[in-house]
Amino acid sequence: MQRMRKLRVSPAMRAMVRENHLRVEELIYPVFVTEGQDICHPVDSMPDICQYSPDRLSEELDRVIAAKVPAVLLFGIPAHKDEMGSGAYDENGIVQKAIRQMKSDKTYRDLIVIADVCLCEYTSHGHCGLVQDGIILNDETLPLLAKTAVSYAKAGADMVAPSDMMDGRIGSIREALDAEGFLHIPIMAYSAKFASAFYGPFRDAAHSAPGFGDRKTYQMDPANGREAMREIEADLFEGADIIIAKPAMAYMDVIREASVKYNIPIAAYNVSGEYSMVKAAAANGWIDEKKIVMEILTGLKRAGANIIITYHALDAAKWICEGE
What we know:
By secondary structure, the chain is an alpha/beta fold. It is built from eleven helices and twelve strands. The protein is globular, with a radius of gyration of 20 Å.
């Protein structure tokens, strides 16, 4: 008989032989910034998550600093939307203003600021690219995505994260960044981003639901795993430095295969629907929130994720420091 339980007899023994460890340094916390003043607006479908105007953004950032979470991923909610998504690449856009504000304050200067690059929050139709006759245009969208990434870099972003899923956008963004002298700015690409029902609460938070149809012509079919490897390979060829699998929990097989196949940092995006399901079940007393969250995040590490983007980041950071 192999007595496997010998290595499980105490917390110290279990910790000594543990294969995967969560680290606060690996967490990224998404933050929503909105135009306006004196705004801290709770997102109904995402408990404990709020939209912040720039003048109150420090309230959330102070919590990030206190938790020692090293990075934030910014999403913007503009005051104006149009068919071209011009707010995304406006030098005075909401994300650009937030980045400059953060980088001018020594309290947050060392925080890694990642700017999500997409048009969906800024277009009147809610799609991630330009639209003509009901068709989401690919090539015509690329220059606007590149322009958006450059504007974020100029504002002081440490990294850009294209989430639009247009073909060729990584190459266009890399070329534009390099041409403007931003050779040092890495690209964290949403490479394996699936057309998922798990995004519902995020669209409430970012006001980014499509005005017609869906995003299945550009985001991936949830049934396709091999195709995800092709998407990742294409993004790496075009210059991606980090790749994202999104959502996380239902796509651990994609994370695992990518971690085996590619020698590159892999981020798992523990998305809004995953977060809200845990919060709802915990609020009803059906689950232990801390234990469930830590098990989910550990599962993502075990699958091969090096980085975890999660709305649980601030709580998880505290729990990691507390130990088992």
